[in-house]
Amino acid sequence: MNKLYKFLIVGILIMVTATGLIVGCGNSGEQKTVQPNIAREAHAEKESAEEKTGVGEAKVIAYYFYTNYRCQSCYTIEKYTQGAIEENFEDELTSGELVFKPVNVEEKENEHFLGDYQLYTKSVVLSLVKDGEEIKFKNLKKVWELLRNKDEFYKYIKEETKGFLDEINQEKEQ
């Protein structure tokens, strides 16, 4: 019975993975080059950025990607990410220089993110958008490792987000 159970689980995981759905908990991924499908989202974000910050300005988008099924860890990652951003970047949020954006990738209009960011599980991704184009992004894979340590989680989100915001500020100074 135990072998049959394991076989069924493996089969289900293979089928789900083959269909491109995000499952399970865990994360992987480093900073990647921009994928072509990002243009759709960058265009929408450009319009939103122009409304908040004016034409041609840059911003950082902190995405939390999730699915319809969410475990307690998934909710905690979203809560901690939002908390770390709100606690450390109030001015940037108010100005529109930083946006926190939870996104359900199972909604039809958001499915492209799976391929754009090569997602396979719930993820936090930072995206640097300048003049309506995504310049770079980074999948913050350590969120799963730091889930049980709120202080370290907040510190990680703060440092990574600050790094992206610093790029915007350096460009403003030039």
Architecture overview:
By secondary structure, this protein is of the alpha+beta class. It has a single domain, classed as Glutaredoxin. Helix content is 49%, strand content 18%. The protein contains six helices and four strands; from the N terminus they run ααβααβαββα. A four-stranded mixed β-sheet has the order 2-1-3-4. Helix 3 packs across helix 6. It starts with a helix and ends with a helix.
**Rounded average pLDDT:** 78
User: What is the terminal-to-terminal distance?
Assistant: 67 Å
Count of distinct strands? 4
Largest sheet: 4 strands, mixed
CATH topology: Glutaredoxin
The count of helical stretches stands at 6
Give me the strand/helix succession.
HHEHHEHEEH
Q: Oligomeric form of this entry?
A: single chain
Computed over alpha carbons, the radius of gyration is: 17 Å
Which architecture name does CATH use? 3-Layer(aba) Sandwich
Secondary-structure content class: alpha+beta
Shape: globular
Q: Proportion of β residues?
A: 15-25%
Tell me the helix content. Answer: 40-55%
Assign the CATH class. Alpha Beta
Q: Strand arrangement, largest sheet?
A: 2-1-3-4
Poorly predicted ranges (pLDDT <50, ≥5 residues)? 3-24, 26-40, 49-55
Number of domains: 1
Short recap of the structure:
The protein has 174 residues and is an alpha+beta fold. 49% of the residues lie in helices and 18% in strands. It has a single domain, classed as Glutaredoxin (3-Layer(aba) Sandwich), CATH 3.40.30.
